[in-house]
Structure formats: structure tokens, C-alpha cells
Amino acid sequence: MNARNQASSAAGDTKTWRGTAAVWDCNSERSLCFSRRELEWPMECTIRPALEDDAAHISAVIVRALRETNAKDYPNEVIERIVRGFSPDAVRQLIGQRTVFVATIRSRIVGTASLDGSVVRTVFVAPHVQARGIGKLLMAEIERTARERNIPSLTLSSSITAETFYAGLGFRAARDSYHGDERTIVMERLLDGSS
Ligand SMILES: CC(C)(COP(=O)(O)OP(=O)(O)OC[C@H]1O[C@@H](n2cnc3c(N)ncnc32)[C@H](O)[C@@H]1OP(=O)(O)O)[C@@H](O)C(=O)NCCC(=O)NCCS
User: Fold this and answer.
1) DSSP 34
2) Cα gap 169→76, rounded to integer Å
3) How far does residue 95's CA lie from ligand 1's centre (Å)?
4) pLDDT, tens digit, for every residue of 26-85?
């Protein structure tokens, strides 16, 4: 755990849902697998700072979300280029450089988000548990951390996929940004209570 993560280690947040879960057909990524019984609701999700040992599991969540969720909005070459940037080793380095959080259900990592100065980065939720409020919980922890550090506003580069998600959290689109044929939307949110 790096110093920044240590500073907020007591700040875990939990939430319980009631609803119906789809059973996810898993194969190799054991960290993401739940048996039918384990997926019975309600479930408790915990947000905590990432540890170096989480790197492989975080990488697996990101890769799966990219290939199953973002793939609907971006060509395969773009997805695979981004996938290469989130290998377990690359994620391990990021954990040392940024404030990285993970969302866990029954101790298994199902989501991640990070704060790099005033920039929100790498927000991903595993496809089989999306649309259950986990992304919102992760962003609440990012916002809480930013406010604690007196950061006046947050910026991010949203995927096409997530623009509506961030807009729902009060982020406003400022401009488009292109990295080759990867379009992202630069978005901002003031933290002074005005948005
Ligand atoms: C974007 C993402 C992180 C959202 O996580 P999530 O756990 O599915 O989101 P939540 O369940 O917390 O949703 C919160 C709200 O946003 C809405 N929302 C979430 N994803 C959405 C989407 N793709 N399009 C439209 N609305 C969306 C939900 O309906 C919900 O609305 P409500 O509060 O009115 O009910 C997740 O879908 C994901 O991993 N996407 C792929 C990776 C990605 O693009 N990440 C962003 C990189 S910049």
C-alpha cells in the first residue's frame, strides 16, 4: 500500500443491494467467479484502497470490461491497445503512483477507480456486476478523497461508453479528445457544491 492509500485506508464504504443477479459463466479469472449460491442477494460491496497484491485481479476486471463493455463503442484495435496498457505489471506500477481504490464483493475485486492529482482515471466495473451502483460507490470515494485534499474540481477523459454515467454524476463535457481513432470526452466537475 502506498502512503496516499494508507492515508485513506480507514475510509471504506459499504452498500447492500436487493435485486436479482445474473450468474456469470466464468473460466480462467477465478477472482471474478461467483457460484450461483454466492450470487444470492443482498450482497455487500466494500470500497477500499488497492494493495500491490491486487494488481492481477484489477487487471482482469479492466480487461474484461474493455472487451465486453467498451468493445461496443470502439474498434478491436483500440480495445487491444488499451488492454496492453493494463497488464498486471502496469497496474502494479499505477498503484504506486496514484490513489487506487477497489470495490470488492465477498473479498473479490469487482471494480476499480483511481485519483491522479485532480484527474479521475481507470474507472471500471466487471460486466457481470455493472448497473448495480458499484461505479457510483467508487466515484463517491474518489469525490470524498478529493474533498479531503481540498481539490477544487475533478477532470476525466470519459470513454464514449461512460459519458452518460459521468453526466449523471454532475460532470460536464468540455471537449472531445482523440488518440488515433480513440475518441474520449474530457469532462469536468466543480467540487464547490455548485454542480
Ligand atoms: C461506466 C461504469 C464504470 C459504470 O459502473 P456501474 O457500476 O455499471 O454504474 P452504476 O450502476 O453505479 O450506475 C450509476 C448510474 O449511471 C447509470 N449508468 C451506468 N453506466 C451507464 C452507461 N454506460 N450508460 C448510461 N447510464 C449508465 C446507471 O443507470 C445509474 O443511473 P441511476 O443512478 O439513475 O440508477 C461501468 O459501466 C464500466 O465499467 N464501463 C466500462 C468501462 C468504462 O467505460 N469506464 C470508464 C472509463 S473512462
Assistant:
1) -
2) 29
3) 23
4) 334 444 556 555 555 557 999 999 999 999 999 999 999 999 999 999 999 999 999 999
Grid cell of 43 as nine digits = 450482497
CB atoms within 10 A of CB 13: 15
From the CA of 156, give the closest atom in ligand 1. Answer: 48
pTM: 0.84
Nearest residue by C-alpha to atom 1 in ligand 1: 162
Rounded CA separation 166/131 (Å): 13
Residue 101: which H helix or E strand, with range? strand 99-105
Atom of ligand 1 nearest to the CA of 184: 48
Q: In the chain, what is the straight-line distance between the N-terminal and C-terminal CA atoms, in Å?
A: 32
Domains and CATH numbers, the chain: 3-15+44-151 (3.40.630.30)
